[in-house]
Specification:
By secondary structure, this protein is α+β, with helices and mostly antiparallel strands. The protein has four domains: 89 residues, Phosphorylase Kinase, domain 1, CATH 3.30.200; 249 residues, Transferase(Phosphotransferase), domain 1; 134 residues, no CATH class; 54 residues, no CATH class. 46% of the residues lie in helices and 11% in strands. It has 21 helices and 21 strands. The strands form seven sheets. The protein has a seven-stranded antiparallel β-sheet with strand order 2-1-6-7-5-4-3, covered by helices on one side. It has a three-stranded antiparallel β-sheet with strand order 8-9-10. Helix 5 runs antiparallel to helix 6, helix 13 runs antiparallel to helix 14 and helix 16 runs antiparallel to helix 20. The longest helix is centred in the C-terminal third of the chain and has 47 residues. It is elongated.
Length: 726
Amino acid sequence: MSQESLYAGGRPLTIDKRIGKGGEGEVFAVSNLPGYAFKRYLNTLAAERERKIRAIVAGRLADSVPTVAFPCEVVENQRGQFVGFLMKRVDKHQEIHELQTPTSRQKHFPKADYRFIVRVALNVARVMAQLHAQGCVVGDINQRGILVSPEATVVLIDADSFQVNAGGQAFLCAVGVPEYTPPELQGKALKSIVRTPDHDAFGLAVCLFQLLCMDRHPFSGSYTGDGEMPLEKAIEEFRFAYSARATGMEPPPGTVRLTDFSGRIHQLFEEAFSPLHVGKRPAAADWVAAMQEFEGELRMCSRNKLHHYARHVAECPWCRMESRYGRPLFLNSDYSRMHLAGGQMDARHGLVLDLNALMAAVNGVHLPAAITVPLPPVSAPPAPQKAARTLHLKRRLLPIARGIGVALVPLAALGGYFGLPWGYALMLAALGLVPLGVKFSPAGYLARHQQLCGEIVARFTTLQQAAPPARAIRVKADIYEAVEQFRQLSSAFSQQPTVWDGERRAKQLDEHLVRHQIRRAGLSRITTTDCATLASWGFTTALDVKQQNVRVVPGIGPIKSANLHTWLHELERSFSYRSAWTTVDHHQVRTRQSEILIKQQGMEERIKKSLSAFQGLALEIDRWKRSVDSELTALFAQLAQNEADIRSLALPVPPRPPLNAIPAPTLASFQPPATGSGQVTRATAQVVCPRCQGPMVRRLARRGPGNGRAFWGCGRYPACNGTRPI
């Protein structure tokens, strides 16, 4: 810049280095006014912008809305000619897309969790509400105009392009970005259109959606009809891809769902993007209230402390997305904490745990090879019950009574024939005695015997299944598995330098590619709208282009795909491998080793708890061998009484069912199958790790919401933590 003398409010300015450049001019630091910056317009634009800037300064909008970098002083040259303006300088802030894009977030906001994102969304809505309250409209909402600090505060810049009413005159916003422009303004010349807060409400909703949904654009998805559906056309036709209404669009795979948010957030997004709410879209103040409510109902994920989500949601949406894409959306909380602490980690070669002594204690407990149940002692048979004795007496007398009855029948018939009175009496006696011989039946006692035998077998089987030896063997198998994993972790701890050395080139190349963002590359035929669509499908850096098929993105045809891959190949050719180890490499090894130590600590705690449970079961086995189940004792007593009753009836006693011991379960029945090397059997080659492309292992989750569920884990664990759902 030339050494032309410049003045603001009559004060001379000392212009320092340039800190920014755009299509309208350049921005410079002002050394004699700390905290302020100077924007100088191109000579062709200065006269056109002068009246608007002077009106904004006179209206003192910079004081009314301090969270917006409005012009606060007019800057003139020594001839009194307008050249630009002063504004508050915004330091230590990043453009909002650096927060909403996962790869950029991990670089610029390493401590950010999802609560931080929600707080930023709340502050964006607050700033917009303050701006609208002053009668201003942003008009040109875009990602570069919203800056975020590490404390989640938000500042709007490029305020000289806003639509403002100052000095009794309306100064319009002449520009706009298609992906934030409402449907009713798509394709129209914006220079002469008076914008309204309702127009801003659409762009605000898009911005909040991208922020809350990991850089996904609400109108980017798969079109279910024929032909292509460009993003601008999807907006113009109100095709909200995530809507519950029929829009002919489906969201990209593995993304968030509106049901992952609170009911109020869900409703506001539907209204903001619905054709029925044009002119009455949710205002910024509505979003402020909804975000405050949403922030208050967030709960922490049990798997990742950086994941927070609505309380009513059954599963963590961020875990679901990480599982789908195989990449973290946030920095690992343990790694982040160690990284911010300067990388001071424990350098021990694993934890000290006397595994030999532990296994000797476990193997020293004798467990029976077969499981039976202690039976009640055999006692003298009980006496038959009174009912059985009575029935037995009746059984002996009834044949005699029946014989007498049969003998009386002819005599009674003779007396009746001659009309003698005693003949009728004899006939009645015969009729009463003859049927008595057929009323006796012992079937009830035999049926009771069968019922009692069934109950005894069922109780015996139940006691066998719940016997402490079976539970002790299960716990012993868990100890064996935990000890083996502990040993593998110890081995992996010492192998980390070798493992990392084998991965360094690929890691360096990935780090090189992830630093190059698509939206900053300025690629031929790749528009800002294409960048928004690509981001919605998970393509934000050159590494994404390398790892995924970019042709799945709607609107990215052969030419645009070729341009992206040409750019990727150029970046790969420009990559230079650093063979010498640096402090970063040593830090990575220490980080991995520290992660292993953390896992070992958890494993050590698991082993100790299992050992304590095993020792308790050993004592329970001793008590179990000497005790008899009271319910089983009662059933055997009832069976003995039933058998005594049957014997008293001079009937054969049915045999009792056998109560056999069953083999105790083996350790192998509780342990995963192993190969000759002692490793868990690996899956087929079709199941590959999404991170390192290596084979996956079937594992069981032992904590969190998915406790007990099977999943695929990388076979190179703990060097690689890649997972896939089964």
